[in-house]
Probable translation initiation factor IF-2
Amino acid sequence: MVEYRAPIVVVVGHVDVGKTLLLDKIRNTAVAYREPGMITQHIGLSYLPWPAIERYAASLLAKFKLSGKIWVRGFLMVDTPGHAAFSNLRRRGGSVADLAILVIDALEGVEEQTKESLFLLKSRGIPFVVAANKVDKIYGWEPHPNFAFIDSYEAQDEAVQGRVEEMIARIAGELAEHGIEADRYDRVADYSRQVPIVPTSAVTGEGVADLLVVLAGLTQRLVRDRLAVGNGPGRGVIMEIKEEKGWGTTADAIIYDGSVRRGDRIAALGLDGPFNTTVRLLVMPKPLDEMRDPEDKYVFVDEVKAAAGVRVVGDSLERAVPGSPLIVVRDEAQLRSAMSELSAEAAAIRIEVDRSGVVAKADTLGTLESMVMYLRGQNIPVRRADIGPVTRRDVIEASVVRRRDPLYAVVLAFNVKVTPEAEVEAQQHGVRVFQNNILYRLVDDFLNWHREQRN
Ligand code: GTP
Ligand code: MG
């Protein structure tokens, strides 16, 4: 029998739209309705079991005649403090995230970084639902704590209902400019064509039930095949590398297939190519109800199964690049195939070609891959793409291009610093270095300059 894991759901959007508060609200809701011992904590992630959601959303499920018809086990939710974190959820040109919640401020609509989220969702092919959050701020809104949106909506004045509809129409209109057809979730006929919009409030909890039910619907209709898991050697992605006192270097990873055990050999990508090491420890946060002493936050585990977030402790992990795959290998043949797979993957992302094009630098494998995808989408050729700060060598590469094609003789620095030597070199050779932490702004700045130079 095939086993299905919980989908990995990433929460994305512009700053301050309420991503973290919405996740807190969802988690607290699930905690309030859980069976003992059911909520498991993960590194920067939280797992929500379906039975808790089912009890919370019971009346809504009954309304849609869905009671007992949902086979989704639960959701593994990932908050993203910034786009780098989102980009690092990469998996060979796609994403480890199976689904996403794009949070939009109901009063602000589509904002600058919403556009960047949209690009990432589209380029990585992630189905998503829009949470039109802060619906409680709509003028005249009467809060009904923890009500389903549709129930609370029914209880509002006609004038307020009108404002809600205007808000939804405005967001749908703005999304249409990005080629996305969207509508209020209970009017969506075809999930594979239209994006559902769920008005929510992370403060009152209104709409949270609707959001979770829509996620379950998307899971069953659109991503089922991705969720079939084996029980063999695990596969995951490294999100973050950290130095932890007493442990040495640790890697926070999301495991999306199979399992990883203490003592396993794992292969990953470093700046200088693939390497492998042994898992010394696997660390998880303590379950919420066992966290009495704040100093004693973690438990050591022997095995972790997909889908899960885990902190891995092992030698040489400082070599790993965020966004790198993590591949468990349990024999020599698996090790050889993992090492060659990793080399091929590195070659696909880190470009080094002898032709005209820009030099692209980014801080992680995930951001670099997003950047190269974006540049290709804009028909901008890339001569060199690599991870790390802008160095003298990058500037020299760009100045070589200048002889052939001065309009591409630039360095684009995404989320990285420029070394002082590189700055001096850039001055001397007259090479422009564009720097930004927002991808499309970085590329826009370059394109504007490119147009000016041409005229
Ligand atoms: P970043 O992680 O910085 O990008 O922000 P975020 O998207 O995680 O937003 P966060 O959850 O930190 O919320 C930002 C602010 O908006 C906080 O002051 C929240 O109290 C407020 N806020 C979030 N959701 C709601 C909501 O539904 N209604 C109201 N009225 N305020 C909200
Ligand atoms: Mg946040």
User: Anything to note?
Assistant: The chain has a mean pLDDT of 92. The pocket of magnesium ion (ligand 2) is lined by residues 19-20, 79, 81 (CB under 6 Å). Residues 279 and 344 are 24 Å apart (CA to CA).
